[in-house]
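Dear all,

This email documents one entry for the complex benchmark we are building for the journal club exercise. For each entry we list the sequence lines for every component of the assembly. Then comes the predicted three-dimensional structure of the complex as a C-alpha cell string, followed by one or two observations. Please use this as the template for your own entries, and keep the labels exactly as they appear.
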Amino acid sequence: MSTLNMDTDTAKDRLGDLWKRSRRTALFVLEDNAAKLGVAILAAFTFLGIFGPELAPYEPIEHTMRTEDGGIMRMSEPNDAAPLGTTTYGKDVLSQFLEGARPTFIVGFFGGIGTGIIGFLVGLVSGYFGGRVDEALMRLTDLTFSLPFLPMALLVLTFVTPSIALITAVIVAFFWKMPARVIRSEVLTVKERTFVKSARASGAGHFRTMFLHVAPNVLGIGFLYTAYAVAWAIAGQASLAFLGFGDPTTTSWGRMLRQVFASGGMREAWWWVFPPAIGIAAVTTAVFLVGRAFEEVVNPELRGDE
Amino acid sequence: MSLLEVEDLKITYSTSEVDVHAVNGVSFEIDDGSNYGLVGESGCGKSTVAHSVLGLLDDNGNVEAGSIKFDGRELLDCSEQEWQEIRWEEIAYIPQSAMDSLDPVMSVGAQIRQAMHKHRDVTKAEANERVEEVFDIVGLDPSRTEEYPHQFSGGMRQRVTIAMALVLDPDLIIADEPTTGLDVIVQDKIVHKLLEIQEEIDSSMLLITHDMGVIAETCDDVSVLYGGKVMEQGSTDDVLKNPTNPYTMGLKNSFPDIEEFDSQAVSIPGSLPDLTREPTSCVFSNRCPFATEECEREHPALREVENQQSACYHVDRVEELREEAVDPETWGLDPVDQGGREAGDVILETEGLTKWFEQGQSIVDQLMGREKDYVKAVNGVDLTVRENEIVGVAGESGCGKSTLGEVIAALQTHTDGEIRFRGTPVEELLSGDSKEFRSKVQFIFQDPFDSLNPRQKVRAAVSEPLKIQGVEGDEITERVRQTLADVGLSPVDKYIDSFPHQLSGGERQRVAIARALVLDPELLICDEPASMLDVSLKASILNILREMATERDMGIVYISHDLASLSQITDRLAVMYLGQVIEVGKTREIVTGPRHPYTASLLAASPNVDPAVDRTRVLLPGEPPNPVNLPEGCNFAPRCPKATEECRESEPERAAWVDEGHEAACYFPVDDVQAELLDRYEGATDAAGTTGEELPQEQGSSAP
C-alpha cells in the first residue's frame, strides 16, 4: 500500500500536538477533586505493582511466620511481627498483599490496554468501511456479547494451566467488544463530516483518512474506554482467581480472597479479607473517578454548572 | 405611544473566562401596526435583543442596563409567571429554523391548540375552529391540521410556525430570520404571506435578518446593528436608499444586484470586533476604510443626518463616503476584469449522467421481490466545462446540484452515463492509480466550519494534498506559503500554525480553497462555497475564485442557489430542476432573457435591496414533486401556468428551444415574464382562494 509510508513530519507534528493536548487534558482532569484522589490511588497502585514484591518483608508463600515459642502463627490478628496478621498456614498477609499487587497490576494494565487497542481498531475499521466489513465485525461483537464472561473463561481455563499472560489474553478476548461498539458509533458520525470527504477529495487513501483524519477525532473516547477496561480487567482477574482459576504459582489479590474463603475464616479473619478487598475496590473506583472527569473532556456537555 | 420601546439595552453573556458584551446600548421604538427590521451580520447581537424582549435569554445572559417597555409596561421587572402570560398572548415568536421548531411527535394542530389552551379558556371545538382559521390565513389547507410535521415541506412548516404565532392575535410578532434556509421562491411566498397577514390583523412585527433584500421589501423602519451597537436607524427607504453610515454602505453594496454584471460587490475586510470588553472606540473602526484617529476615541453617538440617525464621526461628508463606498477598491478589493476570459479546451464533459439512490426497503418487500424505489437525484445531465471558464449550476435545494458536483468529482459513483475528463472516461482514470485524477480535480465544500480537520493545523491541512502526491519537503513549504498568500491569508506566518477553531469562517474557507488550489488543479468544483459566510465576506471569496480561474486557466463548476452571486461570477449557467438541466447558456443571456418558465420564476423571486422598486411577487404554486415518483412529461408542467397537454404527456428535449449556445427544455419558451408568468400566478392563487396550492401537494419534504 503506497499510503503506508506516512511522512515523518506529519507524525512528528502529530505527536507534539498530542503531547500538548494530553497535558492540557491532564490539567483539566486534575481540577476535579475526586479525580485527584483517583490519580493518587492509581499512583500508589502503580508503585505497589512495580516495587511491591521488593517491599514485602517476607517471602509470601515459602516463609512461615512463627510465634515466640516456635509454633506456627496461624490466623493471628495483626501484631508487631505481622502488621496485617497471618493466614491459616501462618503466612504474612502484608507480604501477600504487597506481592499480590503485581499480577493484579499486570493484568489490569495489559488487559486494559489490550482491550482498548483491539476495541479501538475493530471499531475504527468497522465504522469506517461499513458494509460487509461492518456486518462481519459487528456480528462478532454480538457473539461475544451473548457469551457470559465467567462460565466461558472458566471453560477455557479448565483445559490449560492458567498463567498471567493467558488470563490477560482471555480478558482481552472478552472485553474488546465494549470499546469496539462505542468507537464504531463515534466513527460513524465523524466519517460523515465534511473534512473526511475533503480528505478523500484531495486524494488521501483509506489508510491515511482513517488514521490521520478519523482516528484523532475519536481518540478521546478510546482513552476513556481503555481506562474503564483497566477496571474491568482487574475485576475480571480477581473473579477468576477467586473461583480458583488464577495462576497457581503467584499470589494475587483475587487468590488471597480465594484462600481466605477456602479456609473458612472469611467471617473472623477480617485482617485477611480487607487488604485485598479494599485494594481491588479502591483501584477500580479510582479508575472510574478519573474516567468520569476525563469524560467531561471528551463530552463537554457533561460539564455541569457546579 | 409606541408599542415597544427598547432603551439603552446592555446585555452580556458570562462565560467561564470572560464576559462577552453582546449588546452595548441599543435603543429603538416600534409603533403600533408597523414593521421593524433589525439587520446585521452574525454576532451583531440582533437575536440577543429579540430573546431579551421575549425574556428567553440563555441562562448566562444578563441584562446589565436599560429598559424594555411593552405597551408602557416594563418587561425586565416581570416575574416568570408574568412572562408566561405575556408570551404568545401579546408577543409571539417565529423561530429561525422551522425544521426543528415543531415537535415531531405531535400533530401540528395539537401544537397550536396547546398554546391556546394555555392562555384561553376554550373548548376543543373552539380551538379547532381557530386553528383552521389561522391555517387558512397562512395559506395552508385547513383539512391538514391533524398531520404531523414531517408530512409538510420546509416552506409549509414555516407557515405552520407563522400560524402558531398568529393564533392568539398578538400585538407584536417577533420573527427571527423567518426565511433563512428557504429557497427563494418559497421565501418570496412567505414574505408575501407575512405582509398580507400584517394588513389583515394589524399587529406589529419585529423582523430579524441578515438579508437586506427581505428588510427592504417588508419593513417600515430599520436599525442596522454591528458589534452590539446601532450603527444606523431610520425609515427603511432612507437607510437603504441613502445610507449614511459606512457599515450600512458596505453591507448594502455587498448585496449584488442580479442584473448588474459590471458593478462588483464589495466585501468588508477584517473580522468582528473583540466584544470581551466594552467597546472603547467606534466598533466598526477596525474594518472601516474611512476610519481616522477620531474614530479611536470612543463609539460615536447616534446623530441626525439627512432623514435618519447614524453613529459615525464623518456624517458631515456623507455624500463623499457614499460615492467612494461603491468602489470595491475602497474596501481593499482589487478590481478583477470579468470580461477578458476566453474559454479554452474542453476539460470535462458529461453525457447523460445519472445518479439514482436506492431507497431503503423492508425485508418483507425484498423477499417479495418488489421493485425498489429510487430517488432520481441526477437524471441525465449533459454538461461541458472548458479551461478558463466558470460554469454555474443553479437550482433550489433538493434539485440534485450537490449530488451532481460530487459525482463529477468521483466522490460518489454514478448510475449511468459518462463523465469524460480531457476526453478520457473517469472510470479509466480511476482504475489504475487514482492519484493523478485526484490532483487534477479538486472540491470545495459548503461548510467551512466542518471541512477542515479540527486537529490539523493550517500548515498540515494545506500540505496534505502535496504529501499524498509525494512532493518533497522544501517544495511543500514553499508551495503552501505561496498558495496561502494567493488566497489572501497574509501575513502567512500569522495563519500557518493556527488551528481551524482559531480562524473566522471566512479565513477557514480560504484555507479550504488553498487546500484545493495547492495542487494546481485543472478543474475545481465549488459547492456553495460562500453560502455559510456573512454577506460582507462573500464577495471576497468570489473574487479569489474568479482571480484563480483567470490566473491558473482552471475550469470551475460553481454550484449555488444564490442567483446573485452566480450572475456575478459565472460565464455560463446551467439551471437544474429535479435532477435535470432545464436551461443552459451564457449567464448574461439567461439572466436577461430566461426562456424556461422555471428559470424566469427563480430569477424574478430574488429580493431587491432597493426599497423603492416594486416587484411582483412570484407566487409559483405547489412544491417540486417528489423525486421518487416523477410526473410523466415535463417535470415542471404541474406547476407551470403555460403547460398544455403536450407538456404533460411528453418530456421536452433539453434543446427543445435553441438559440446559439442558449438551450431551454421547454416547448413554449417565455418571452414576457410579467404577462406570461407572474400575472398568471397571481390569478391562479386568487382563483384557488386562500387555500392556495390546489396543485399537487407533495407530502413531506421533497429533498432527498
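Observations: The longest strand of chain B covers residues 346-358. Chain B touches chain A through 31 residues (CB under 8 Å).
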